[in-house]
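hey m, so remember when u said the tokens were messed up on ur end? i reran from scratch. heres the input so u can diff it against urs
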Amino acid sequence: MAGARPLLDYDAEAGSYDATRGGVPRAEAAAAAVLGLLPAHARTLLDLGCGTGIVTARLTRPGLRVLGADTSYGMASTAVRRGVPAVLASGTRLPLRRACLDAVSAVWLLHLLRAPGAVAAVVAEAGRVLRPGGVLVTTVDKDAAHDVGSDIDALLAPHLTDRAADDSRTVEAYAARAGLRPDRETRFTGHGQGRTPRGAATALLAGRYAARISPRGTTAAGLAARLAELPGQDAPRAEPTYRVRSFVRV
């Protein structure tokens, strides 16, 4: 992923990543949301933290040139094999000149950047490479979208980290510093992302919730054991609805 050191080994995860993250239906919904927030004049788009390129490959419309960037070789290689032009690059230091792009997208990226200053740095770098009138399109409040009022949410609630890295108000403040003003927003459904107790336990033990859950008075294994006691171990709870915002370079 673009930015700070990732919480997971994304090189190792690349081969199975899409299958565990909603696959094509979720990717298509995400791409449609991003495209809906792009201005008509946009001709160049950089997709930060492009991962396997499953979303990036669907950011298509006549006249739009798209490039992906990721810090994981495994992810970027997978994107290239998918037909996405992708480079190894950090979102905090892009190998691009100032004001050279019409749009930058960051889908499911900012919530992963837990290092101090990482989100601010990525937003600032997006502001640097955007032309006046260009847009940053990013998901915000990603993890909060998974709180659908389920029994899984109730069990994990006491162990949530204090503040999400992609909190919408925080991102808006960083954007203002970078010369970006709020513009529009939309939402899309996280198809196939309704959590199950068994799946939540597996993800917890694999470190996939490391950005959001910090066990208090127990361990990850202890929480996983409690999840294993919930009914309907393989019954998906409600699907999340993700929020996407755009910010215009002034």
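this time it looks ok to me. The beta strands are 44-48, 65-70, 86-88, 101-106, 130-140, 180-189, 241-249. if urs says something different then somethings off w ur setup not the seq
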